[in-house]
Amino acid sequence: MKLKEILKGAEGKIVQGSLDVEIKSMTIDSRKAGKDSLFIAMVGMTVDGHKFIPSAYEKGCRAVITEHSVESIPEDMTVYQVEDARDALDIVAANFYAHPAEGLNMIGVTGTNGKTSTTYFIESVLNHIQHKTAVIGTVEIRIGGKKREIDFATSTTPDTIELNQMLRIMADEKCDDVVMEVSSHSLELKKVKGINFKVGIFTNLTQDHLDFHKTMENYCKAKAKLFKMCQYGIINVDDEWAGRIIENAECSIITYSIEKESDLKARDIEYLPDRVHFTVNIKGEAHRFELPVPGRFSVYNALAAIGAMVAMGVEPEKIKEGINNIKGVPGRIQSIKNNKGFNVIVDYAHTPDGLENIINAVREFTKGRVLTVFGCGGDRDKTKRPIMGEIVARLSDVAIVTSDNPRSEDPQEILKEIEVGVKKVTDSYEMCVDRRDAIKRAIEMAEKGDSVIIAGKGHENYQILKDKTIHFDDAETAKEILGE
């Protein structure tokens, strides 16, 4: 494709070179640049991509988009300067991949907790009504129910180029719908700015990512951006930030709740060890759901999915059938089967609210004690560490503090910061830096009727240390220790 075709709609000026050059790929990473590629130089949070233009040139790249002037660029390199490279990237990526989102029914899910489970729940209903559905999220990429090995650089939402590349594949494979997790980072960094969503969902907002957003107000503003780019907004009005989201929304709103009155309120909730039953009034008629995933937070996730399906015009009976046939989500309240007489549960909970939710959910069906193994990630929001420690100590019978993904930090120091919160509640707890040893200790302590929660990593099959990344899977480790 000619560069001039890729640049259609991206306002700017040509500094040097020709717009008739042929472009066969594009990248924001100079290491991936090459012959016939377009390099988009962006000013990042810590690094200015313009510094890597020489590196891209050395790899054969002869076209670059910049957002400020750069000296000493070789004369045979085409330079196109724009005011904001992120805004331009949304346009050029969509142009290059022939606007793949336009032929897809896009559903975006944002919130601190519940994004992954909600996407799985929506996928279940859409599969039930014979829609070919794709899912983009934290756990994996799926098309038509099958996992695809499509790598992307960030943990939740792909960058703009990767996203358009994925959507092109999904459009070419005749998908009807794409359900994707939309992180606050992706909204703030304009990764999804060019996408018109049919449905946007707000699950909740609790403390997380303040290392990036700095304040909860900023965090909320980032999440709210999704509801300026969708037709329908599905909002959890039990969340304290829901009012802000609705106030700034530019779409039709459908609300859901357990506590407050709303368009879709769960009533007559019956919590069981392996499922939860509840009733929702849809279009003036009561429908009884039998969700095969336990816990109060699972009800919220199901309500979000129900709201999305109502917005899309799916018949209530079909919604109910799809919800009632949901399978478990990897690493989300995942039960590890064993013959020891106690429960072992792996969950991704890694925020204060997430931990509170999973412990309360497990408490609902546990006859004995709740033992919780948990830690906090390194190089992330430090302020939540003592808060998480206090929550686990208060809600669990046994708290075992361990490592999560320490990254560049000293694991011992992270544990000490968590310990500050634990000590506010109890002097009876255990500290174990080695995660495998911590899981082993909890399982050895467990008795018949107890529940062991292994929190924080969920579906992840790795652990990020200071100098390396190792294979580590909580569910796999628990099975080994249990001898299953």
Oligomer: single chain
| Helix share, percent | 25-40%
Mean pLDDT: 93
Distance between the termini: 55 Å
How would you characterize the largest beta sheet? Answer: 9 strands, mixed
How many beta strands in the DSSP annotation? 25
Q: From the helix content, strand content and strand pairing, which structural class follows?
A: alpha/beta
β-strand percent reads 15-25%
Radius of gyration: 24 Å
Helix count from the secondary structure assignment: 16
Strand order of the largest sheet: 9-8-7-10-6-11-12-13-14
Query: pLDDT under 50 segments (min length 5)?
Result: none
Shape: globular
Secondary structure topology:
Layout: H1 3-6, E1 12-16, E2 25-27, E3 37-40, H2 53-58, E4 63-66, E5 78-82, H3 85-96, E6 105-110, H4 115-128, E7 133-136, E8 141-143, E9 146-148, H5 160-172, E10 177-181, H6 184-188, E11 197-202, H7 210-213, H8 216-224, E12 230-236, H9 242-247, E13 252-257, E14 264-265, E15 267-272, E16 275-282, E17 285-291, H10 296-311, H11 316-324, E18 334-335, E19 343-347, H12 352-365, E20 370-374, H13 384-395, E21 398-401, H14 411-423, E22 430-431, H15 435-445, E23 451-455, E24 462-464, E25 469-471, H16 474-482
Parallel strand pairs: 2-3, 3-4, 4-5, 6-10, 6-11, 7-10, 11-12, 12-13, 13-14, 19-23, 20-21, 20-23, 21-22
Antiparallel strand pairs: 1-5, 7-8, 8-9, 15-16, 16-17, 18-19, 24-25
Helix pairs in contact: 3-5, 4-10, 4-11, 10-11, 12-13, 13-14, 15-16
